[in-house]
Amino acid sequence: MSVQVESVTKIYGKQKALDGVSFTVNSGEIVGILGPNGAGKSTLMKIITGFLHPDEGTVSVNNAIIGGNTLGIRRQIGYLPENNPLYLDLYIAEYLEYVAGIYRLKGTQSRVKEMIGLTGLESEKHKKIGALSKGYRQRVGIAQALIHNPSVLILDEPTSGLDPSQIVEIRQLIRNISADKTVMLSTHIMQEAEALCDRIMIINQGKIVTTDTPANIKTMATSAVQKVLVEFAEIVDKKALLTIQGVIEIQSLSEKTWLIFGGETDLRPQIFKFAVDNKLTLLTLNKQESTLENVFLDLVR
Predict the structure, then answer these.
(1) Are the CB atoms for 54 and 9 separated by under 8 Å?
(2) How far is CA 201 from the centre of its chain?
(3) Are residues 249 and 274 in the same domain?
(4) Distance between CA atoms of 129 and 111, rounded to whole angstroms?
(5) What does the alpha-carbon distance between residue 18 and residue 276 come to, in Å, rounded to a whole number?
(6) Are the beta carbons of 140 and 129 closer than 8 angstroms?
């Protein structure tokens, strides 16, 4: 296994940023870490990379425990922080040569050229980093994380703040470079996690809520609560809707549109019967399919 986290706890004052977190990430796996703001995602990544030390527990990278040999382990890890700190007054190649020098790489120029080609920076290489768009700055950040050819790649919100086309480009770049590396990335974008990741880990209030494949998470028991979108031509009283057999909860979207929650039995026949009995006109009767976003909201609610 590439990364092993055992009973890791991190406390800031009275708040537990991480509370007894344990998991493993296998070689060649892409794992997405999902969670609301303040869930502990960035703290977890900083501990794995050795920038923070846990108050309790251990972290191993390629079977070496982070602690006494933190510097040696960091050589095996590529890290893109959320805020992507760069030297804006340097040209792309200058900056990458500087990072390569920190790692004391040999054949620096050829490695920098290779990274510029791999990350799609060829057309922008004549520019200073400060003149680049955010999408290209993210590419520079990924290039510096890869330049020493690490076996483990940690990406904290790699597509944060990018426009849709840039998100697609960075997503494809991550997919291309993940062929021979273990990748851990945090994201708020459910479609990104579903499209990229072999496994998803949901963290909330410093604890792992669940970890599984995207397909399995979507079929979890919490998603068995069905949702039916209903729109009537007439104004309908919520109390009347609550009399429908099988209804658990109702969310008002407007006086005529409702999101109705029920158990495993399909609510639509009962809603249709309710409309007929009350001489109402149904404009919409749509069962909402289970999505990763729905399950995520259920789990962190």
Answers:
(1) yes
(2) 8
(3) yes
(4) 19
(5) 53
(6) yes
How confident is the model at residue 51, as a pLDDT?
86
- How many domains, the chain? 2
Structure tokens at 257: 């549109």
Q: Which amino acid, residue 13?
A: G
Q: What backbone phi and psi angles, to 5 degrees, belong to 241?
A: -65, -30
pLDDT band (50, 70, 90) for residue 255: confident
Q: DSSP for 194-253, please give it.
A: HHH-SEEEEEETTEEEEEE-HHHHHTSGGGGSEEEEEEESS---HHHHTTSTTEEEEEES
At residue 176 the predicted structure's pLDDT band, cuts being 50, 70 and 90, is confident
Token duo for residue 90: 């340097």
Verify that 158 and 293 share a domain, yes or no.
Answer: no
d(CA 88, CA 200): 34
| CA 55 to chain CA mean position, Å | 25
**Residue 142: DSSP 8-state:** H
CB atoms within 10 A of CB 13: 6
The whole domain housing 193 covers 3-214
pLDDT of residue 74: 82
Q: State the CATH number of the domain containing residue 116.
A: 3.40.50.300
| End-of-domain residue from the set 161, 187, 214 | 214
If asked whether residues 24 and 154 sit together in one domain, one would say yes
Domain boundary among 214, 230, 249: 214
pLDDT, position 240: 92
**By three-state DSSP, how is residue 48 classified?**
helix
Q: What is the mean pLDDT of residues 208-213?
A: 91
